[in-house]
Amino acid sequence: MKSRKPSKSSPLRDGVPLPRLSDEAAVELYLFVEQLFLLIESRYGAQIQRHFLDLDRHNLVEPDPDRPWDDPPF
Fold first, then answer.
1. How far apart are CA 22 and CA 27, in angstroms?
2. Could you tell me what percent of the chain has a pLDDT over 90?
3. pLDDT band at residue 56, thresholds of 50, 70 and 90?
4. Separation between Cα atoms, residue 37 and residue 31, nearest integer Å
5. Contact (CB, 8 A) for 12 and 18
6. How many CA atoms lie within 13 A of 37 on its CB side?
7. 24 Cβ neighbours under 8 A, 6+ residues apart
8. Alpha-carbon distance 19 to 7, whole Å?
9. Angle formed at CA 50 by CA 49 and CA 54, multiple of 5 degrees
10. What percent of the chain has pLDDT over 70?
11. For residues 28 and 35, is the Cβ–Cβ distance under 8 A?
12. CB 3.0–4.6 Å: which of 18, 21, 45, 59 could bond 26 by disulfide?
């Protein structure tokens, strides 16, 4: 099978240099990365979720009890 050329505007092409692969090799690489992701997620998923929840809590805007009720939030 013929391999496809990446488009010149591909964001990955500007970052990490990737070799050209056959369609079969690209699928095998994709499936490997997918299985690796699932393995990492099954082992560390709870920790990853806790980390992102903790980051979200730090980004929340706390209500200002001294602000008048008719004051717009912007």
1. 9
2. 46
3. confident
4. 10
5. yes
6. 6
7. 1
8. 13
9. 115
10. 72
11. no
12. 21
What's the rounded Cα separation, in Å, for the pair 29 and 72? 52
Distance CA 54, CA 58 (A): 7
Cα first-last separation, the chain: 57
For 8-39, what is each residue's pLDDT tens digit?
A: 545 555 788 999 999 999 999 999 999 999 99
d(CA 52, CA 30): 26
Q: Which residue has the tokens 């992701």?
A: 37
For residue 30, what pLDDT is reported? 98
Residue 14 tokens, joined: 């500007």
CB 48 within 8 A of CB 42: no
Q: What is the pLDDT of residue 13?
A: 58
φ and ψ at 68, to 5 degrees?
-65, 150
